[in-house]
């Protein structure tokens, strides 16, 4: 078993995909603290705030650099999740809202049009299978390895879940949504760029223990 199975599939690799460029642009431009303050939350010097997602009298939501985490209700995610949850939006709509509210000029790079004459249904099915398996692991890690109190060291599995969950959710939304062209294009990019192959190999390297628990 490799010492660092996660090394095969870093979030940087995943995020390198063109389809995630819009999300990345926004996440790079707006910090969680900026978003929280912009949307009316009071943030303390140690980046704690009262959680808007549960009845919270003493600040229990920690705004880290690239993700938030609530020690009261367990809510977590990145700046796009935060905004989505705050306003009841989809991740994509939340990204658009942040873009508008913060005046970010995100570059929308259109997905390359499929080059194959026939859409690859097998490709889309494979993408969905592999991403759903990864999602299952991420959700378990998010709960199992979450920090118990402010100042706890961050488990790498928890950090991985925080970083890639929004992306995996977004990709599954694209693949399973009503927009068939988007689903087809997403699957094609994922297959052609080798993401799915890499992810599938990465999932295969997870230890027996991790797989049993999943
Ligand atoms: Zn909370």
SSE map:
Blueprint: H1 11-15, H2 21-29, H3 32-38, E1 48-49, E2 61-63, E3 68-70, E4 76-77, H4 79-87, H5 91-101, H6 121-144, H7 156-176, H8 180-192, H9 195-205, H10 208-213
Antiparallel strand pairs: 1-2, 2-3, 3-4
Helix pairs in contact: 4-5, 6-7, 6-8, 6-9, 7-8
Unreliable residue runs: 1-19, 109-119
Largest sheet: 4 strands, antiparallel
What would you call the structural class? mainly alpha
Cα shape = globular
Q: Provide the list of bound ligands, each named once.
A: zinc ion
First-residue to last-residue Cα separation: 18 Å
SSE pattern: HHHEEEEHHHHHHH
Number of helices: 10
> Which whole number gives the mean pLDDT?
79
Protein architecture, described:
This protein has two domains: 1-19 and 114-214, no CATH class; 31-103, DNA Primase, Chain A, CATH 3.90.580.10. 54% of the residues lie in helices and 5% in strands. Strand 3 (68-70) and strand 4 form a beta hairpin. Strands 1-2-3-4 form a four-stranded antiparallel sheet. It is mainly alpha-helical. The chain is globular. The chain binds zinc ion (ZN). Zinc ion is lined by residues 51, 53-54, 56, 61, 70, 72-73, 75.
Structure at a glance:
The chain has 214 residues and is mostly helical. It contains ten helices and four strands. The protein has two domains: 120 residues, no CATH class; 73 residues, Zinc finger, CHC2-typedomain (DNA Primase, Chain A, Alpha-Beta Complex), CATH 3.90.580.
């Amino acid at each position: 078993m490799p010492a660092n199975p996660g090394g095969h599939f870093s979030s940087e690799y995943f995020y390198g995909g063109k389809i995630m460029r819009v999300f990345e642009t926004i996440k790079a431009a707006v910090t969680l603290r900026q978003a929280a303050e912009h949307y009316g939350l009071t943030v303390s010097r140690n980046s704690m705030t009262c959680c808007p997602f549960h009845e919270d009298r003493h600040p229990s939501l920690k705004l880290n650099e690239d993700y938030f985490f609530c020690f009261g209700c367990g809510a977590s995610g990145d700046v796009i999740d935060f905004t989505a949850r705050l306003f009841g939006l989809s991740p994509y709509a939340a990204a658009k809202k942040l873009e508008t509210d913060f005046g970010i000029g995100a570059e929308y790079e259109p997905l390359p049009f499929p080059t194959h004459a026939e859409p690859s249904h097998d490709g889309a099915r494979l993408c969905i299978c592999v991403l759903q398996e990864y999602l299952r692991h991420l959700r378990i890690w998010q709960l199992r390895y979450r920090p118990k109190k402010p100042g706890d060291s961050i488990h790498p599995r928890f950090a991985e879940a925080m970083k890639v969950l929004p992306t995996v959710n977004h990709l599954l939304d694209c693949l399973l949504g009503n927009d068939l062209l988007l689903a087809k294009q997403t699957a094609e990019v994922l297959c052609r760029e080798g993401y799915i192959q890499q992810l599938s190999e990465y999932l295969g390297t997870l230890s027996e223990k991790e797989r049993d628990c999943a």
